[in-house]
Fold this protein.
Amino acid sequence: MSLWNQARRSARLNPSIIREILKVTEKPGVLSMAGGLPSPDSFPVEAMRQACAKVLAESPREALQYSASEGFGPLRDWVAHKMAAMGHRVSADQVLITTGSQQGLDLVGKVMVDAGAPVAVETPTYLGALQAFNPYEPIYTSLASDADGPLPDAIAALPHDAPGTRFAYLLPNFQNPTGRVMPEARRAALVKAAQAARVPLVEDNPYGDLWFDAEPPAPIAARWPEGTIYLGSFSKVLAPGFRLGYVVAPTELYPKLLQAKQAADLHTPGFNQRVVYEVIRDGFLDQHVPTIRERYRRQRDAMAAGLAEHLPEGSEWREPQGGMFFWVRLPEGCDAMALLPQAVEAGIAYVPGAAFYAHAADPRTLRLSFVTLAPADIADGVATLGRVLREHIEATAEIAP
Ligand code: PMP
């Protein structure tokens, strides 16, 4: 027997399938569409360099000292203004700066989830949220969905004997992994259903600013402020390496999230908060984010063209209107997980969709990121994927009776 008698939750901490896949795809010569990483070409290196120098010159003692668990005041104000501009009027007192929005997910799990408590998630959902919630041992309900997101009837059908479903975790904008966006009417219907069922909502929105054609509707939190926790992030509009995100919480819940944050890491690095505030304080993102949109839109177009040309008949996908991902459903008989080794051998990598389901996965699905490869490489990669799939389909047709 091991000397180390680990906590029960430790059994729920497993290596991320995505990280394991990324290791394989780091092989030279593999075109990877597997990563969930933003394009490093979009990082504003010069602005960051200047801001780092300015913070160290002007407020080194404060920036390098311990600081408040709530976060850097001016950055919290900035977030409150951004929320108001999106139609969600909040006080800066409701803003908690977190070490990435991934930490926000962990804090939500810690504060809201007991072992055996019901938590509702989309079908499919963000793998990292499942990883963050899993150690708290929820029992998931997978919400039935269509192209517009989860179905309001699925919320209405959630268990609501007290204390009921702790929350429904929603990704309204350019969802990871499907890329789908919830239209206004679906948001309204979901909020109505959630209010009737007394199921609070957790809204995760790291991709909302990365729209290509039209700005997405106002956040769900704006429709039900006292019933929604909102999570935001600087990872996709600036750089993920600073690990800066935020939680905007109803006043009732804020103190508990703050106490959980304090216990977790005291505070998010003050230096990082000040540097990012210095970069964005005078409207930098108003010029910078459109350049990311333009870059990603071109890459999206390249992938859309490649998929239309190369994927075998019976494949299904929708063109994402923002974000970083295509979600593809392969023809019947194709298993994305089983085909991955052949794909990597042929020089292309993707994430099998199975990783993103809390329950019964659809083995035909896969996620492709279009943001880390240049358009020419996207075209080559998708052509290779098409070839692997065709070869598989032909081979299985030959052995079919
Ligand atoms: N939520 C979603 C839906 C994501 O895709 C990601 C990053 N892949 C995160 C949260 C975490 O982002 P971060 O911690 O960098 O803010």
In short: Residues 9-38+286-396 form a domain with the Aspartate Aminotransferase, domain 1 fold (CATH 3.90.1150.10).
